Amino acid sequence: MKETKKHIDIEITEVGIITDIKRDVITIKGIPSCVYGEMLEFESGDKGVVIEFDEEKVVALLLGTGIESKVGDKAVSRGELLKVPVTEKLVGRIVNGVAEAVDGKGPIRSTQYNPVFRDAVPIMDRVPITESLKTGIKIIDTMVAIGKGQRELIVGDRQTGKTTIAIDSIMNQKDENVICIYCWIGGSYTSMVKMIEALDNKGSLSHTIVVAAPASVSSTEQYLAPYTACAIGEYFVDRKKDVLVVFDNLTKHAWIYRQISLLLNRSPGREAYPGDIFYVHSQLMERACRMDPKKGGSMTFLPIADTLQGDITGYIQTNLVSMTDGQIYTSATLFNEGFRPAVDIGLSVSRIGSKVQSPALKEVSVKLRLEYAQFKELQKLTKMRAKISTEIAKKISRGQTLSEILVQPANSPVSEIEEILVFYAFDVGILEPFGKKEVFNFEKNIFKFVEKNYPELLGDIKFTKELTPQIKKDLNKVFVKFFEEQKIEM
Question: Which domains, from first to last, does the chain contain?
Fold first, then answer.
């Protein structure tokens, strides 16, 4: 008879002893072979994740809200990294900082798990960013265009519309086949509910995952939330889909990490932040990418950061500016003046920008930034002078028309075709003779008019993505017809 060999599975574990507990921070003696991000199980049934270790001790963050562990309890490591469940079923759901459902719709069952802390995609697997991520916000799509795979920081004072820009960008992805992840970090629960309701009212939760880590949850969850959002996004990227991730906001995430670091007795540096705060955010930002289409999709980041009284030179803000591919700066002054979205074009920039715009949108927006900057300077000049020349008066009139076009109500993104129609009309000077009411009426109704009466023209623009001489000729005729129907004299 042949002998049959039995394979015995041996589980290798390491055991340590809890020596200190400070809020969510647990210090353990032992477990010499641990790694960053490793899961630990405690004698009480609590779980933790390793965030620091040296020759003498291991430091872990407690997962969960309550703590039953006490000094002297055992801590066990089974050599497993912290992972979160990933599945298509996450879309439309609200989860906590470790991807557990918190929306009352039942648990999310999955057989696949992604590590929370994961290396960024290698350079050789990436390709240049060439495709536009359309936000539906006119001032951004024309002057600070964003590409799929880009990292664009939204920065400004509190209550200046940063979250509204992110929400509008998500709303505009409804028909763009982009999976959106909204990561809420450290904000109030009430504000988070309002954000979710805004998305739900526009039917945008159907393509969105909300990772909720408000101020009321543990510091561990708030710290892990953005990494969990990345891990979920990478699941879809690996399946060749496009993903948009919003981090709202990383200033509060830095505060949480600072609190944890002070509990760890780390030496405080500039503004009391630990020395590795740059690494904490840079390893997060590096995970945004556009992969080779044969290997995966793209993941675009819109991190949000707060400034204090417009000071963009703060430690966290300058760190994030250096990690990202540009910033959208929201101004409290513009916001209070009623110019919304309150994007300051002078301080906003995209390092991808016009490279990802369609030829048609690029043609009608190429001069906008310069014209708007000249208008703002001339506005200052006219405040000091009583008399101005006819030429300056014309430029100011044109600038005022541009300002009226750029103002956009919250939660009302527009399509790229609508942007092309409106800004082409501005480019050829058709709108300048009209007042605010007529310009608003044109913006509101021109797309519907063309869609109803000249659908083939819209089809030509969508197909060619260019403003050919014939299309321009047809558009000029359409504008005349529109004003005739509206009984507005040109």
Answer: 14-81 (2.40.30.20), 85-357 (3.40.50.300), 364-485 (1.20.150.20)
